Amino acid sequence: MMMHEIETSRLWLCRPTLEDWENLEELWRNEIVQRFLGGVAEDDVIKERITAIQDHWDHYGFGLWAVYKKSTKQRVGLCGLHRSDDGLEISYKFFPTFWGQGLAKEATMACLNYGFTTFKDNSIIAITQEVNHRSCVLLEAIGMKHIENFKRFDTLQRLYEITRYK
């Protein structure tokens, strides 16, 4: 069963609405957030990415969720699963104000659980730049294993994978 919402002890993840995007598009404009994600994006690129996320939801019935901190109702970022050329992939980006609180770990764990209970895929992957140490640490903390390095966008990337719990 496809869900449009996930709830954890501290977070609420939901399909992004137009109102969400008015705030979340700032993720692509934030130099700190975008440091390892191609740099600050122009408005037309942001609109293309938002459209692609919405189209993924419309086509597959799941995608990146808007992540809210339940206690304050603040939007903290994006996190979710999407189909990519590489497989079923987990992606995330959070506003720096919320880094270091375990929220990304909580959100990504909820997304992995959703993926393995909803889909027949035997693995979920993640790709991050090798120099993005914080992301590498997060992926390893949620049980993902470093599989290989490869070059993409003229940068060394790390491919991580987690397989279905047996």
Task: Annotate the secondary structure layout.
Elements lengths: L4 E3 L3 E4 L3 H7 L1 H4 L13 H18 L3 E6 L4 E11 L2 E8 L8 H16 L4 E7 L3 H9 L3 E8 L2 E9 L3
Antiparallel strand pairs: 1-2, 2-3, 3-4, 4-5, 6-8, 7-8
Question: What are the salient characteristics of this protein?
Answer:
166 residues, alpha+beta, Aminopeptidase, 5-stranded antiparallel β-sheet, 3-stranded antiparallel β-sheet, 5 helices, 8 strands, 33% helix, globular
> What is the fourth-level CATH superfamily?
Gcn5-related N-acetyltransferase (GNAT)
Number of domains: 1
Largest beta sheet, briefly? 5 strands, antiparallel
Quote the average pLDDT.
Answer: 92
What is the CATH T-level topology? Aminopeptidase
CA distance, first residue to last residue: 21 Å
The unreliable regions are none
Query: Any guess at the CATH architecture?
Result: 3-Layer(aba) Sandwich
Can you identify the CATH class? Alpha Beta
- Strand percentage lies at 25-35%
Computed over alpha carbons, the radius of gyration is 15 Å
Helix/strand class = alpha+beta
Walk me through this protein's architecture.
Helix content is 33%, strand content 34%. The protein is an alpha+beta fold. The chain is globular and about 40 Å long.
Short description:
With 166 residues, the chain is an alpha+beta fold.
